[in-house]
Design goal:
Strand content: over 45%
Mean pLDDT: 91
Structural class: mainly beta
Distance between the termini: 24 Å
Largest sheet: 24 strands, antiparallel, barrel
Oligomer: single chain
Radius of gyration: 26 Å
Number of helices: 5
Helix content: under 10%
């Protein structure tokens, strides 16, 4: 990853081979036959000490995260690099990024007939991710890309295979463990004669992933090769679709499970029904001891091989998204979710002149039922679990949202949510009470004309636990398609400690022009938790100015 020149030379060689170019062709001629695209982003923050919010002094004053992606494509060939810089990383990002910059991602790939080969870095997902998912979530500072070789081959239409081997990224290095994976996908209706015209569509998949890590532990005899296998099926007919996936992992003693030798398993089921104006999604999952890393000693989000899907709604409003978001529990969880969308037609009593949309969502996550075993000197199974029993509550979320257009100029969105949040488990705060809260949100947009609009947003969260009641007010003016200006205040008015009844005031201005966006924020940021898809990181309090520039080309 550190040798930029080698990457360029290797890429040019591949390009030359792929296009059968004459050896005397110049670099310019090569590049003229293809296309270069990419994107750039920099986030920089100036920090000010703030004794009121608890924002601490930052020695550098200014910290920044930045990256540049460059991708070259020419027919079936592509190559790319990503340069990243963290000098030092913004507060809240993993420490491993600090004071580092360089090329962290580079690849070359080609596709010819049924074969596709990638060498270097790549991301991959088998099924829903229970067995394997590598991906980047820049907002979390998370990237577990694989560095190695991946081969995809289509045996015939409707039947494809994937094989890969490599190591995972951890900050600016690679983890110790070696990752190997295989996946197969079968479209039954395409492959088997007699099913082509069937109204019932069936897709089947199977995966196997293993890791190798040497045993250098003086306390235990640890398995150096650990395997996970999984199978999945998707059946759809008309308006109904059912998707199910199961994964099994052999004993994998690690820091996550206290080095026990119990196997792991996970089950995910989702059913959907949709028609015009109505949609319903029902989902359930159970995962038990399914933390799977290429390095058994790592923690947090480092070197995770698989991904346990979150069955909770991903809220975007300030209070719902940042105060009590849910983090998936890798070692044991039973979760259910129901999501309903209905559209009241125009001209009906509830729909009125413009119609109205309603969305209702209910999600719950609980611990698995466990019985602790006193077998530390024996088989070290740790615990046993009844598959069909459910343990204590981790999280519950009932929410409903109404979206209605009142006139050609006015549109409103109204949300109510009831949350149950177990601080002890989710945040690791023993002795802290379970939080019960009610949240109300009113979001109204008024368009003066085609270019000018104003949006106002009021939120309130009421609870007797934790920090007490919160309120948020936002006003945002937009001048399409380029400018916006916003002011937001988050106020902890219900805190029992009057010194902590703080206003977190923040102003922002932004400019958009084609593929470029520039935004400047000035003010306070509350300490809290930032989550995406059930994966979370802690964000400390900060005060100052934040600049973001993004551009695509």
């Amino acid at each position: 990853m550190k040798k930029f020149s080698r990457i360029i030379i290797l890429s040019l060689v591949f390009i030359a081979i792929n296009n059968n170019l004459n050896a005397q062709s110049s670099v310019d001629q090569i590049l003229n036959r293809g296309e270069i695209r990419g994107n750039f982003q920099i986030e920089a923050q100036y920090y000010v000490e703030d004794s009121i919010t608890g924002a601490e002094e930052v020695p550098e004053d200014i910290r920044s995260n930045a990256f540049l992606n460059l991708i070259y494509t020419n027919g079936g060939f592509s190559a790319g690099i990503r340069y990243e810089s963290y000098l030092n990383a913004l507060l809240g990002y993993p420490e491993g990024y600090n004071n580092n910059n360089g090329i962290t991602y580079r690849f070359a790939s080609f596709t010819q007939d049924r074969l596709a080969v990638t060498v270097g870095n790549f991301y991959e997902q088998f099924g829903s991710g229970l067995v394997l998912r590598t991906y980047e979530e820049r907002g979390l500072g998370y990237d577990n890309a694989i560095d190695g070789i991946r081969v995809k081959y289509k045996l015939k239409e409707g039947l494809s295979l994937t094989g890969l081997i490599g190591k995972q990224r951890i900050f600016f290095e690679l983890g110790d463990g070696i990752l190997r994976g295989f996946d197969a996908n079968l479209d039954v209706n395409t492959v088997f004669k007699g099913f082509e015209e069937s109204k019932t569509r069936v897709l089947i998949g199977a995966s196997a992933v293993s890791k190798f890590q040497a045993d250098q532990d003086s306390r235990f005899v640890l398995p150096e090769n650990v395997s996970t296998v999984g199978g999945r099926i998707n059946v759809s007919r008309g308006k109904v679709s059912v998707n199910a996936e199961y994964a099994y992992k052999i004993n994998d003693p690690s820091a996550d499970n206290g080095f026990i030798y119990k196997d792991g398993q996970a089950l995910f089921i989702q059913t959907t029904y949709s028609q015009k104006g109505f949609g319903l999604v029902l989902a359930a999952k159970r995962n038990d001891n399914m933390s799977f890393r290429s390095d058994r000693s790592e923690g947090l989000q480092n070197l995770l091989i698989n991904y346990i899907p979150s069955l909770t709604k991903q809220h975007t409003y300030n209070l719902l998204a940042t105060l009590y978001p849910y983090a998936v529990q890798l070692n044991g969880e039973v979760a259910f979710q129901a999501d309903l969308i209905y559209k009241f037609k125009k001209g009906t009593p509830l729909g009125g002149k413009y119609g109205m949309d309603i969305q209702m969502n209910y999600a719950t996550a609980n611990n698995i039922d466990t019985t602790i075993l006193n077998d530390e000197a024996g088989k070290r199974q740790g615990y046993k679990s009844d598959y069909f029993k459910i343990g204590e509550v981790y999280f519950k979320d009932f929410n409903t949202t109404l979206t209605k257009k009142f006139s050609k100029k006015t549109k409103g969105r109204f949300t109510y949510a009831n949350l149950v949040y177990n601080q002890d488990i989710i945040e690791g705060k023993p002795g802290k009470p379970v939080v019960y809260s009610n949240v109300g949100i009113v979001d109204v947009t008024y368009k003066f004309d085609r270019k000018n609009s104003i949006r106002t947003e009021g939120q309130v969260l009421i609870t007797e636990q934790d920090q007490g009641n919160w309120a948020t007010f936002l006003v945002e003016y937009s001048y399409a398609p380029h400018w916006f200006v916003a002011l937001i205040d988050q106020y902890n008015y219900g805190n029992k400690d009057s010194d902590l009844q703080i206003h977190y005031l923040n102003g922002s201005v932004g400019y958009n022009d084609k593929g470029t966006r520039v935004a400047l924020n000035v003010g306070r940021q509350r300490a809290g938790i930032f989550c995406v898809g059930g994966v979370c990181r802690v964000v400390p309090a900060s005060t100052g100015a934040y600049l973001s520039i993004t551009s695509s080309f």
